């Protein structure tokens, strides 16, 4: 594991922490690569069924590492697209489509790429000390990690346009109103609140959680008829499973389901 991304596994929950506090956890290429590698490992780790992603210090992430990005720009458009844009879009797409729930715990500054990672994640909770912004316009560029596409889908076209075209910062309360985060909590309660929300999810069938994540992510931008086909496809994947049989049997017997291979969310592992 790179020093830029710390990992801790407690029971069924992995916490990944961006760890460049002196750079406000800016997403340099090494950090993005380390985060992608961590997600690859966690995807194949049967112990882990949910992820908290947060940052050290006073920032979640201030966005891309501008000095490093500037060198790619100086090398030409092809280099900048390959090294910066494609890498950042690969990260946010991976987070968005991940088949285990990822919850971003926004502990502070979430600018640019840090805001785009938050937009891509299926769940997010913000500290009351968090600050958000889409400042790329001040650098003479549009957002490149998916911000021009995901923020309008979350917040609506005109509200997103105002943030994208002014570059002005906004509060966690505004982020909650826009649908960027699920809740705002006191700073000292951020990680406990993030874990509590994940634990309310992880008592359910891991296979069912994965199909819901997939159905929503794949279907949200499709016409409703096509989205319903995605939903039906995901149900078809569950129909022959022991998890569905156990869920139905438990419901009818008025007992708590005992899903195959379900790890305790609180035990160290």
Describe this structure as you would to a colleague:
- This protein is of the alpha/beta class.
- 49% of the residues lie in helices and 16% in strands.
- It contains eleven helices and ten strands.
- The protein has helices spanning 29-43, 66-74, 77-97, 113-120, 147-155, 157-166, 172-178, 190-202, 206-219, 224-238, 242-253; strands at 5-10, 13-18, 50-55, 59-61, 102-106, 109-111, 123-127, 131-133, 169-170, 183-185.
- The protein has a six-stranded mixed β-sheet, with helices on both faces. Strands 4-6-8-9 form a four-stranded mixed β-sheet.
- α1 (29-43) links the parallel β2 and β3 (50-55).
- The radius of gyration is 19 Å and the shape is globular.
- Taking pLDDT < 50 over at least 5 consecutive residues as the criterion, the unreliable ranges are 264-269
What structural class should be given to the helix and strand makeup? Answer: alpha/beta
Count of distinct strands: 10
Shape: globular
Number of helices: 11
Provide the spatial order of strands within the biggest beta sheet: 1-2-3-5-7-10
Binned strand content: 15-25%
> Helix and strand succession?
EEHEEHHEEHEEHHEHEHHHH
The first-to-last residue Cα distance is 18 Å
Largest sheet: 6 strands, mixed
Evaluate the radius of gyration: 19 Å
Helix content: 40-55%
Mean pLDDT equals: 94
